[in-house]
Design brief:
Rossmann fold; 5 helices; 34% strand; alpha/beta; eight-stranded mixed β-sheet; 14 strands; 203 residues
Length: 203
């Protein structure tokens, strides 16, 4: 059973529908005490980092997610959910994250270009991936759907398993032991996105 964490900051229906297409049993879970009952967790997210962390703290989800991560079970953050895995974010101030992966989240640097880099980074883009079970059987191009204005910067390069070019190369997927994160939306990424979710089911 896969739990989809509900903290009032995610597009839960789209994520659940994608798993339903794959025939996987899921439940949307808003009770932090019940997270431990799931074999795997998805942490979705849409919106601002600081607001998301406040919602997690108000519900006691922050500590429950840390306990789940410590249990060794697999969890994956999607989009903002991936960013929340890091230690901090500079989005509208300085905010502490879950601290499950060392690094921080920052805005796209638009100052290094002669012409403005359009932010948010929105639409289809290619992910250049490392050899990892999350990316098995993807087509050769690895195009996925992105919508974000901030991106992760990892402290340990070994935690990066996917990179994407948008003005410059940035980390778009991470893995640290049992903790995974992916910046694009697999539930909106057609065949490749469904394959990533299928691979996640099989981990």
């Amino acid at each position: 059973m896969i739990g989809i964490v509900d903290y009032n900051m995610g597009n839960l229906a789209s994520v659940r529908n994608a798993f339903n297409l794959l025939g996987s049993e899921t439940a949307v879970e808003s009770d932090p005490e019940k997270l431990k009952l799931y074999d795997k967790l998805i942490l979705p997210g849409v919106g601002a980092f600081g607001d998301a962390m406040e919602h997690l703290k108000e519900r006691g989800m922050d500590e429950a997610l840390k306990a789940y991560a410590a249990s060794g079970n697999t969890m994956m953050g999607i989009c903002l959910g991936m960013q929340l895995l890091f230690e901090s974010s500079q989005e509208f101030g300085e905010h502490k994250g879950l601290g499950l992966i060392k690094g921080h989240v920052q805005a796209f640097d638009t100052t290094r270009f002669d012409h403005p880099l359009k932010v948010p980074h929105m639409g289809w883009n290619r992910m250049f991936t490392k050899d990892h079970p999350l990316f098995e059987k993807l087509d050769s191009e690895h195009y996925l759907y992105f919508v974000h204005s901030f991106h992760a910067v990892v402290d340990n390069a070994n935690d990066t398993i996917g990179r994407t070019e948008y003005g410059y190369s940035f980390t778009s997927a991470v893995a640290h032991n049992n903790i995974l994160g992916i910046q694009p939306h697999p539930e909106k990424s057609h065949k490749n996105g469904l394959q990533i979710l299928q691979n996640f089911i099989g981990l």
